[in-house]
Write a structure and sequence with these properties.
about 325 residues; alpha/beta; 10 helices; aromatic amino acid biosynthesis; Chor_mutase/pphenate_deHydtase; 5-stranded mixed beta sheet; 15 strands; elongated
Length: about 325
């Protein structure tokens, strides 16, 4: 871990060496940032919430920010999805997966029987509710800005008796562990994304993901089906689709979408064209390599050559007689 990964009050003069993350040190978000090769040895800025992290990027205080976007148990992180929908000029440039489990910690001298109130980040709390209901059925919950902050608050006047925290919390605070592996699902994973103002798009790898946000044009039967058909008719699989209220009226929603493939893939590009014609507002959040590196599988009917050949054929229909076709595909169409 870089020496400068602890919370910093004063930023260095070279902003292109700063990465923001949800702190304090020891969070899962910091663990995700450790997976970024470009961030190694750079300055890491600890922030209190997603809004502050993205504000750093927009203001130029940071070159990028790591934020949680989805959890395998709780689904999408709504605060992050809403921020990406409303803060202009942001791009996702990478995604990272972090296995997630939790411990219950307390001040020295505290026993499980003493625990009446638990401090925890709301997402972590939701992932541990089965254990908590079984072992602390009458407990109360105090929300925290992060799981590490929850543990730190035990020594800062918090009325909580215990906190939900990452297993490595004992390396950062003098707490006692009351219980381990309290997460409801031992296979839980949180997906993080690195967000930047960089408008460049990484080259396709064959194992890519494209993230978008799109609004429905109106509230009518079949409107969502029309949106989904922009992808299904091009053979593009959606690995995530979640609705979020726009907020200006009842029944008005935007959809957060992850599509398998890259914007430079013909099938994905054509789907985006169809989506833009259909939706009044489309936000392109980026195309980037998948964290799991799994190659995207699709029907060969939607390979790139099929789309380019179709465009060449269409161009050949109105080409002057005797004109040299632009491509071999066009020549075949004329022949």
């Amino acid at each position: 871990m870089p020496e400068s990964s602890e919370p910093t009050a004063d930023l260095p003069s070279s902003v292109d060496e700063v990465y923001s993350f949800l702190g304090p040190s020891g969070t899962f978000t910091e663990a995700a940032l450790r997976q970024v090769p470009e961030a190694a040895g750079k300055n890491w800025r600890s922030v209190n919430n997603v809004g502050e992290a993205l504000a750093d990027v927009v203001a130029g205080r940071s070159v990028a920010a790591m934020i949680a976007i989805e959890n395998s148990i709780e689904g999408g992180v709504s605060v992050a999805q809403d921020a990406l929908a409303t803060v202009p000029g942001l791009r996702i440039i990478g995604e990272y997966l972090v296995p997630v489990n939790f411990v219950l910690v307390a001040r020295p001298g505290t026993t499980l029987a003493d625990v009446k109130t638990v401090n925890a980040h709301p997402v972590a709390y939701g992932q541990c509710h089965l254990w908590l209901d079984a072992h602390l059925p009458e407990h109360g919950h105090l929300p925290a800005s992060s799981n590490v902050a929850a543990a730190a608050s035990l020594f800062e006047g918090s009325t909580a008796d215990a906190a939900i925290a990452p297993p490595g919390i004992v390396d950062h605070h003098d707490v006692v562990v009351l219980a381990t592996e309290i997460g409801d699902n031992p296979n839980a994973v949180t997906r993080f994304v690195l967000v930047s103002r960089d408008r460049g798009v990484p080259e396709p790898t064959g194992a890519d993901k494209t993230s978008l946000i799109a609004e429905l044009p109106d509230d009518r039967p079949g409107s969502l089906l029309d949106l989904l058909e922009q992808f299904s008719t091009r053979g593009v699989n959606l690995s995530l689709i979640e609705s979020r209220p726009i907020g200006d009226a009842l029944g008005r929603y935007r959809f957060v979408i992850d599509a398998d493939g890259h914007i430079h893939d013909e099938r994905v590009a054509d789907a985006l064209l169809g989506l833009r014609r259909f939706s009044p507002a489309v936000i392109f959040l980026g195309s980037y390599p998948r964290a799991d590196k799994q190659k995207v599988e699709f029907d060969p009917r939607y390979r790139d050559a099929v789309f380019t050949e179709a465009r060449d054929w269409l161009a050949s229909l109105t080409a002057p007689e005797g004109a040299v076709p632009a491509t071999p595909a066009a020549a075949a169409a004329q022949g």
